[in-house]
Design brief:
single chain, 246 residues, mainly alpha, Serine Threonine Protein Phosphatase 5, Tetratricopeptide repeat, Cytochrome c oxidase assembly factor 7, TPR-like_helical_dom_sf, Sel1-like, repeat
């Protein structure tokens, strides 16, 4: 059946039928991908975050669907649909998603591990966090590559805050501009504009790579091009982000 999506009544009918189709595919046919679509439908169309959260949670726990683990972990992190934030539960679901090879779940799990914040209820472990960022970066998560680059720019240790320079000779992750360059290059190639901006500065200064002003200009322009392509971006791109405190 075709619908006239310019007709309000037919749009409503289409949406209603879509919900019925997703419920049947999830509850009767027990298809994990359809259950995830049902949760997305409840979240985006119905704005019923409590029900959406229950579907995401069940789809993660029962059907081992990584994207649903990631989504429910996000609900736990923000308190969406569950009234209050629960960081340990968020960590648990991000870990489940990561073990199911969902790269953004690995990234979120890593961020909770490398961040020093006593309110999280998650013990800081920068080495484990770095390993998870590497897994996420290897799965082509550009943001994870950018964070990895930043960790190697500043160095890190347990007890330090993200971006805080570690004490000399007391690093869990030693400073390495060569490794910082490596991950900035991957992040830039994957489309992370901040990685491209840092890459430009590395080439301009000869940090971690041989100085090359032409390549510095090339990656500066790429960063600016990526910024212009980003819709509704209110942030101002800063070149050398993370480099000024190295």
């Amino acid at each position: 059946m075709s619908y006239d999506l310019k007709s309000e009544s037919e749009v409503k009918e289409y949406i209603n039928n879509l919900g019925i189709e997703y419920r049947f595919g999830c509850y009767s046919e027990k298809k994990p991908d359809v259950c995830h679509l049902l949760a997305d439908f409840l979240e985006a169309i119905k704005k019923d975050y409590e029900k959406a959260g229950r579907v995401y949670k069940n789809n993660c726990d029962e059907f081992k669907y990584g994207k649903s683990c990631l989504k429910y972990g996000g609900y736990c992190l923000t308190g969406k649909g569950i009234r209050n934030s629960d960081y340990p539960a968020a960590y648990s679901y991000f870990e489940k998603g990561c073990n199911l090879d969902e790269p953004f779940s690995c990234f979120n799990q890593a961020i909770l591990l490398v961040t020093k914040n006593d309110t999280f209820g998650v013990q800081q472990d920068v080495l484990k966090g770095m390993n998870l960022l590497e897994k996420s970066c290897d799965a082509q998560n550009a943001t994870a590559c950018y964070y990895l680059s930043g960790l190697h720019i500043a160095g890190a240790r347990n007890g330090s805050k993200v971006g805080e320079k570690a004490e000399k000779d007391n690093y869990d992750i030693p400073r390495s501009m060569e490794k910082a360059f490596k991950y900035a290059l991957v992040g830039c190639e994957l489309g992370n504009m901040y990685s491209c901006a840092n890459l430009s500065q590395m080439y301009a200064k000869g940090d971690g790579v041989e100085k090359d002003l032409k390549l510095a200009d090339k990656y500066k322009q790429k960063a600016l091009d990526l910024q212009s392509e980003t819709e509704n971006n209110s942030e101002t791109l800063k070149f050398g982000l993370g480099l000024e405190n190295k």
